[in-house]
C-alpha cells in the first residue's frame, strides 16, 4: 500500500534478528501422555494432539455443562478470557502493534521534520537499527502516544484498518490475520458452542484489537478488553459529537490490571482463562478464585521450527517480548494450571500449514 | 430485615417531602397525535398510547431491520442504550443508591462512634432532617465513599443484594424491582426481539446496578455501564486473588462521560438511546452521530398523579434530582429527538397498576 512499509520491513529485520537469534538452539522437552484420548466422530479440537492439555479442555467443558455434575456452571457465568499476543497469535519478534507504531512514524514523518533529529523517532526515520535495538519501554511509549493520539476514535479505526489490510509478519510473510493459532481458534469455537462467552483480554490497545477481532477471532468489539487511552467528548466544526483520543493511559490492562478490568467490564470471575506470560498471572489467579470448576492454561513457546522458542521457563531462551518465567511455570504446576507445549500439544499451529 | 431501615424511612420522608412538594401543581400539556397507529394482533408495546413516541419506536425498528431499506442496520451494530434513574425506573424523591448509602451509614454507625459528631454522617445518625435537606454533592460523595469502599468487590455485591431484598420506595411502598417503568421494559424486549443488544448506561454505580439488572431488566452485568470506582487486585490471607474497592472514582459516567464510556465498553456508536436529563445529552448526540437511522428519546416526567412531575422544561417544577432543562427540551425539538410525555404516552407506568 505505502512505499514506507518497505522501509519498515528492513528496519524490522533487525528487531527480528535481535529477538529471535537465540531461539534456534532449543532444548525440546517431549512430554508423554498416559491418558487415553476420547477420539470421537467429530473432534472439536482437531489441531490438538491427544494429551493432558487437550484432555483438560474436554474435561472442563464436559464437567461445567453437565447439569447433573456438582461443578455445573450456569450459562450466564460461562466466561472465557484469552490473552492475545503469544496466546492466540504470534508476538515475536515484536508485538504487531509496535510494528504498527513504527509504520505510522514513517508515514507521519513528512509532517514532523523535527523527528529527523529527535529520538526515539530519529532512529526509525533514519533507519538506525542499532538505536532501535536499544529502545526502552519509555521510547516505545513515546512512539505509541505520537501515533495513537490526537485523532478521533473513528479516524483511528480507519488508520488501523488501512494498515491491517497490507501489513505482513516479517518472518512468515503472511498477513497478520493468518498468524493466529489454529488450536486456539478451535478452543474459542468449542467453548462458544458450549455456551461460553469468549473475550480477548490483552495488554495491547483495546481499540487496535477491536478493528480486526471479529474477522480474526469471531469476537465482537464489546468483548475486547485491552489497554485503553482516555478519550474526550467534544464537537467537530459541524457541531457533531466526536471522541478525541488523549495522550493519557486510562487502563493499563496487564498483570493486576487484567483482573481489575475483567471485573470492570464483565463484573464477574471468568471460568476459563488462557495466557502465556507474567502479565497473565493475575487473570488466571482471579479465574481460579471463582470457585468450583475452572480452567487455567498457559502457552509455552517451545517450537522454534514452526514458531518461536522462548521462556526463560523450562530452559528456553530468555526474551523481553512475552516473558514466561520459571516462577510462573512453578506456580502453574503448584496450582494445577495446564502448560500447553506448543511443540507437543499442537498438531498444527497455523491454518495454512501443510 | 434491619431495624434501622425503619429509622431511614422516617428520614427519607423529609427528603421525599423536600423534593416532591411542588410536584402536585402540574400544568399538564396534552398532546394530540394525528398519526394513525398500527394496531396489529400482537402489539409489542401495549403500555404505550398510540402517538408520535410509540410510532417513532415502531418506525425505527421497522426501518433498521428491513434489509431492503437503505437505513438497514447490520445485526452487529444494533446497540441500544438506556439511562436508568428516571428513564427506566423512578428516581424521585432521591436516587435509590443514595437511599442505600444512607441505610448503610445507619447500619455501620455502631462501628463509627465518631459519626455521631461528624457531618455529614451526624445528620443521618441523629435523624437531623433539616441538615440532610442541605446535603451538598460533596456530602453525598463523602457518604458514598464511606459506604461503597474498603471491602472486596464480591462482598459489596452481597451487601447490595441484602439491602435490595427488603428496601422499598418511600412513597409507593413497593420493592424497587417494582418501580420500573413497564413501557420501557416493553421497549427493551421489543428491541432485543429485533436483534438489538440492550445496555444500561447510568450515572449510578455500575456495581450497584449489576446486582439486580438481570432480574429487573433482563440485562446481564457485562451490559451495565456505570460510574465505577477504582479496584485494586491483591491477595487475602489464604493467598487468593481478590479485588478491593478503593475510594477513587475511575469512571464518572455522566454527561460527556456517557459517550466516552460507551466507546470504552462497546467500541461503537449506539443506534438508539433513551434518557431523561442533562446527563444524557451527550449520549443522545453520540447516538445521532452514528449516521443513518437512529432513535433518541427523552422521558418527560409530567405525571404527578401516577409518578412525579419535574423539569423545569415545559413549565414543570424544578428539581435537583433528574433535571430536564428547557435548553435540553429545545435541543430535542431542534434535532428531531422524541420527548416522551409520561402522562400522555404511557397508558400504564407500573406493572402493578390496575
Walkthrough of the structure:
2 copies of one chain form a homodimer. Chain A is α/β, with parallel strands linked by helices. Chain A contains 14 helices and 7 strands. A 7-stranded mixed β-sheet of chain A has the order 4-3-2-1-5-6-7, sandwiched between helices. In chain A, a hairpin with a 5-residue loop joins strand 3 and strand 4 (241-251). In chain A, helix 3 crosses helix 6. The two termini of chain A are 29 Å apart. Chain A binds chain B through residues 76, 153, 197, 206-207, 210, 214, 220-222, 224, 228, 231-233, 240-243, 250, 256-257, 259-260, 263-268, 282, 285-286, 288-289, and chain B through 76, 153, 197, 206-207, 210, 214, 220-222, 224, 228, 231-233, 240-243, 250, 256-257, 259-260, 263-268, 282, 285-286, 288-289.
Structural class category of chain A: alpha/beta
Oligomer state equals homodimer
Mean pLDDT of chain A: 90
Strand content of chain A: 5-15%
Query: Between the first and last Cα atoms of chain A, what is the distance in angstroms?
Result: 29 Å
Poorly predicted runs of chain A:
1-39
The value of Rg of chain A in angstroms is 21 Å
Number of helices of chain A: 14
Largest sheet of chain A: 7 strands, mixed
What is the overall silhouette of chain A? globular
Short account of what is shown:
Chain A has 354 residues and is an alpha/beta fold. Chain A is 38% helix and 14% strand. Chain A has helices at residues 3-20, 52-65, 96-108, 121-125, 129-133, 137-148, 153-166, 182-193, 206-210, 213-217, 256-266, 281-288, 326-335, 342-345, and strands at residues 79-82, 197-205, 224-235, 241-251, 272-275, 295-300, 338-341.
Amino acid at each position: 500500500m505505502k512505499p514506507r512499509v518497505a522501509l519498515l520491513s528492513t528496519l524490522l529485520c533487525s528487531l527480528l534478528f535481535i529477538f529471535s537469534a537465540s531461539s534456534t538452539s532449543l532444548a525440546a522437552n517431549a512430554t508423554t501422555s498416559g491418558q487415553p484420548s476420547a477420539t470421537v466422530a467429530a473432534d472439536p479440537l482437531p489441531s490438538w494432539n491427544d494429551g493432558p492439555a487437550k484432555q483438560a479442555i474436554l474435561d472442563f467443558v464436559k464437567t461445567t455443562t453437565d447439569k447433573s455434575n456438582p461443578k455445573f456452571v450456569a450459562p450466564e457465568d460461562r466466561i472465557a478470557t484469552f490473552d492475545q499476543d503469544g496466546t492466540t497469535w504470534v508476538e515475536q519478534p515484536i508485538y504487531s502493534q509496535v510494528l504498527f507504531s513504527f509504520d505510522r512514524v514513517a508515514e507521519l514523518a513528512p509532517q514532523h521534520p523535527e523527528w529527523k533529529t529527535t529520538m526515539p523517532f530519529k532512529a526509525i526515520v533514519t533507519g538506525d537499527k542499532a538505536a532501535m535495538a536499544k529502545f526502552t519501554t519509555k521510547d516505545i511509549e513515546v512512539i505509541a502516544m505520537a501515533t495513537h493520539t490526537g485523532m478521533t476514535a473513528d479516524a483511528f479505526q480507519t488508520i488501523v484498518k488501512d494498515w491491517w489490510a497490507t501489513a505482513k509478519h516479517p518472518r512468515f510473510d503472511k498477513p497478520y490475520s493468518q498468524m493466529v493459532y489454529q488450536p486456539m481458534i478451535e478452543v474459542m469455537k468449542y467453548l462458544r458452542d458450549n455456551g461460553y462467552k469468549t473475550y480477548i483480554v490483552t495488554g495491547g490497545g483495546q481499540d487496535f484489537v477491536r478493528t480486526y477481532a471479529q474477522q480474526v477471532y469471531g469476537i465482537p468489539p464489546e468483548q475486547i478488553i485491552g489497554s485503553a487511552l482516555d478519550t474526550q467528548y467534544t464537537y467537530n466544526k459541524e457541531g457533531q459529537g466526536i471522541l478525541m483520543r488523549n495522550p493519557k493511559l486510562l487502563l493499563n490492562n496487564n498483570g493486576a490490571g487484567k483482573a481489575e478490568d475483567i471485573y470492570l467490564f464483565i463484573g464477574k470471575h471468568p471460568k476459563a482463562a488462557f495466557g502465556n506470560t507474567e502479565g497473565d498471572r493475575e487473570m488466571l489467579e482471579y479465574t481460579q478464585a471463582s470457585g468450583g470448576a475452572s480452567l487455567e492454561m498457559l502457552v509455552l513457546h517451545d517450537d522454534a521450527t514452526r514458531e518461536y522458542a522462548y521462556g526463560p521457563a523450562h530452559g528456553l531462551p530468555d526474551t523481553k517480548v512475552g516473558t514466561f518465567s520459571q516462577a510462573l511455570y512453578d506456580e502453574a504446576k503448584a496450582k494445577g494450571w495446564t502448560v500447553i507445549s506448543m511443540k507437543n500439544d499442537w498438531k498444527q499451529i497455523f491454518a495454512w500449514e501443510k
